[in-house]
């Protein structure tokens, strides 16, 4: 059987091909799954998709009509998939429920340190042999307060690094993580965390209840010199409200690896095109903001685990097995 994999990055392709060797043929496409590309899947019982694939009703209907019966998404998040429609159409859907939390936590810290210590600006200057220090002053993080929204596996990994920096720890989640408590984390209401934290990092999933969890009111509650990092899902932050606050001169730094309107932009080369997203265009102009292209997970360790889990999901489907990765089970 040939598996069709959409949205495969160049570095990811050899890992996928090696993993599937001896099991199934796999054809890797660098194009993402959209309404326009969905017809390509015709005749393929199993497809694999990336996190920014469009798996809304129209795409799912096209897939089902073309003979697709199983979707193996190569990510933990699945907010891009209409699960109710998939179930109605008889499509099995599986995701990757776990991969290295350190990849994302370490990248979140990379963003935090980069904006705090003005690394991008400093690097750009030295390339032009400008070695002035004007505008490059950062802050020690030791003794300051880290606020972690979401203390699951990734949030815990982020917290352990914050503890290593000697920071005070505030957490918010629906349930306390004993490992974080053991590190000295104090769980508080979200409003208190936003008001007291010097560094705020987001590690909650994107759900209806968490969409725009950082909205205009939340942003106004934060310290004027706070650092904000989002390496989870773009929809957690109201980007228009964030731009408004940045224009008012607030926040020492903002590091975003995700953006709420990233679908159709991220993972693609748009350098020769006019980007019509005015919010993103404005966002990247602020000197205290770093935007990266949803790469926090992108380590050989994490991607290797994602690929292995995707293969297992495919093998489970063909063998009629069900695992914890299944979001919509195989129709009986």
Automatic annotation (TrEMBL):
Membrane-spanning segments: none
Occurrences of domain D-isomer specific 2-hydroxyacid dehydrogenase catalytic (ranges): 8-327
Top class in the EC scheme: oxidoreductase
Keyword set, alphabetical order: NAD, Oxidoreductase
Residue span(s) of domain D-isomer specific 2-hydroxyacid dehydrogenase NAD-binding: 110-296
Pfam family, one: 2-Hacid_dh
Its EC number(s): 1.1.1.28
UniProt-recorded Gene Ontology molecular function terms: D-lactate dehydrogenase (NAD+) activity
Family classification: Belongs to the D-isomer specific 2-hydroxyacid dehydrogenase family.
PANTHER family (alphabetical): 2-HYDROXYACID DEHYDROGENASE HOMOLOG 1-RELATED
UniProt protein name: 2-hydroxyacid dehydrogenase
């Amino acid at each position: 059987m040939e598996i069709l994999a959409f949205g495969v990055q160049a570095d990811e392709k050899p890992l996928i091909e090696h993993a599937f060797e001896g099991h199934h043929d796999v054809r890797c496409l660098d194009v993402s799954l959209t309404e326009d590309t969905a017809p390509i899947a015709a005749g393929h019982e199993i497809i694999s998709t990336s996190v920014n694939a469009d798996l809304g009703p129209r795409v799912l209907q096209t897939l089902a009509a073309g003979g697709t019966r199983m979707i193996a998404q190569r990510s933990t998040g699945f907010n891009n998939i209409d699960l109710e429609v998939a179930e109605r159409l008889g499509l099995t859907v599986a995701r990757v429920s776990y991969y290295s939390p350190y990849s994302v936590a370490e990248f979140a810290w990379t963003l935090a340190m980069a904006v705090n210590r003005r690394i991008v600006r400093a690097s750009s200057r030295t390339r032009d042999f400008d070695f002035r220090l004007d505008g490059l002053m950062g802050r020690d993080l030791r003794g300051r307060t880290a606020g972690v929204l979401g203390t699951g596996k990734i949030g815990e990994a982020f917290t352990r690094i914050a503890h290593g920096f000697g920071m005070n720890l505030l957490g918010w989640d629906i349930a306390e993580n004993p490992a974080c408590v053991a590190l000295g984390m104090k769980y508080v209401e979200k409003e208190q965390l936003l008001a007291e934290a010097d560094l705020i990092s987001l590690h909650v999933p994107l759900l209806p209840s968490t969409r725009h969890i950082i909205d205009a009111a939340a942003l106004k509650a934060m310290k004027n010199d706070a650092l904000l990092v989002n390496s989870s899902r773009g929809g957690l932050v109201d980007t228009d409200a964030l731009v408004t606050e940045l224009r008012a001169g607030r926040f020492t730094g903002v590091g975003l690896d995700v953006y709420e309107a990233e679908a159709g932009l991220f993972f693609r080369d748009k350098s020769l095109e006019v980007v019509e997203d005015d919010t993103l265009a404005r966002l990247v102009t602020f000197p205290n903001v770093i935007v990266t292209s949803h790469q926090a997970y992108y380590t050989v360790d994490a991607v290797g685990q994602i690929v292995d889990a995707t293969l297992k999901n495919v093998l489970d489907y063909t063998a009629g097995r069900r695992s914890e990765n299944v979001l919509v089970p195989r129709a009986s």
